[in-house]
Design brief:
By secondary structure, the protein is mainly alpha-helical. It has 9 helices and 5 strands, in the order αααααβββαββααα. A 3-stranded antiparallel β-sheet has the order 1-4-5. A two-stranded antiparallel ribbon has the order 2-3.
Length: about 300
């Protein structure tokens, strides 16, 4: 066995994995935290499904084409795909023993991840469509006050994710705007002051989706390198440092959502970061165990 393939090249690098390695000395604590994060992610996914379902009735007309309805559920599709993906990574990097990796299981894990990636890319497409749609709008003629729309079943968009039905009881408190718009293909209206805000949030959604895709591609590369015992590969430290930098951008996005009033988005952003850090912890434990096996094989090998 070549020594270059049995020594970890990232021992001196400051990466997410190197920061998580000390948790391996407290496996019960690490596993408790990991599964609490997974449970929280499932609960959070339920909230997003509910939000998308409510937004569907508030923003999309009854005769909307199927593609408009599907893109409205981009967040739900995204969340479900990510939950499936993290389960598959958990199985491959921790839950399944080495002897379980038959050809059928390996093909199942790979096929499952491919399906997840297709759904994730579709969700990113949906975010892009929704973001670009915020630039395709028309003025609601003759409306200078929300009370003019009260009682007619109209909905006002409050922020990027919330809508409020305009009624005689709440119309005066909903908006101070005197100019209102309607996005192409949507039945709800929004005030002039909100337009720029949702446009900026749309680009934040797109960038976040793209960065996550890059992160999981890097994780796939690392899983492949570790599975091939290529711990001395020059590519491995590049992958780990790159992931760490992209995680920093994701953390920035989480704070951006928090500062703009989207507590659920911020909470969700950090939950997913912690969820994939759990996978990073699995990779660290896998690497540690495999390196010990390789060293033992070297010691036992005849001179």
């Amino acid at each position: 066995m070549n020594n270059n393939n049995t020594l970890s090249p990232t021992a001196q690098l400051l990466t997410v994995k190197s920061l998580l390695v000390p948790l391996l000395t407290r496996p019960k604590v690490a596993h408790f935290i990991k599964y609490m994060v997974y449970i929280s992610l499932l609960i959070n996914t339920g909230f997003y499904l509910l939000d998308d379902y409510q937004a569907l009735f508030a923003a999309i007309p009854d005769d909307a084409p199927l593609m408009d309805i599907l893109t409205r559920f981009s967040t739900s599709v995204d969340m479900v795909a990510w939950v499936m993906l993290i389960v598959l990574f958990e199985l491959e990097t921790y839950a399944l023993p080495d002897e379980a990796f038959t050809k059928k299981i390996t093909a199942f894990l790979l096929g499952g991840r491919v399906i997840c990636y297709i759904l994730i890319v579709f969700a990113a497409y949906g975010y892009t469509v929704e973001a670009l749609n915020t630039y395709d709008y028309s003025e609601v003629d003759g409306v200078t006050d929300t009370c003019q729309l009260a009682g007619g079943g109209e909905w006002l968009q409050i922020n990027s994710i919330d809508y409020e039905e305009i009624t005689p009881e709440n119309c005066e408190s909903l908006s101070d705007d005197s100019l209102f718009y309607q996005l192409e293909g949507e039945s709800s209206v929004l005030g002039e002051s909100l337009l720029g805000h949702i446009q900026r949030q749309g680009w934040l959604d797109i960038s976040n989706a793209i960065i996550w895709i890059i992160v999981v591609v890097l994780i796939e590369i690392e899983v492949w390198l570790q599975g091939a015992d290529r711990f001395g590969s020059r590519l491995l430290p590049v992958v780990r440092v790159s992931k760490t930098l992209f995680y920093l951008v994701l953390i920035f996005n989480g704070f951006a959502w928090a500062l703009t009033g989207y507590a659920l988005y911020a909470w969700d952003a950090f939950l997913w970061i912690f969820g994939f850090w759990a996978i990073e912890l699995n990779l660290a434990e896998w690497e540690q165990d495999r390196l010990e096996e390789l060293r033992a094989e070297q010691v036992a090998a005849p001179a």
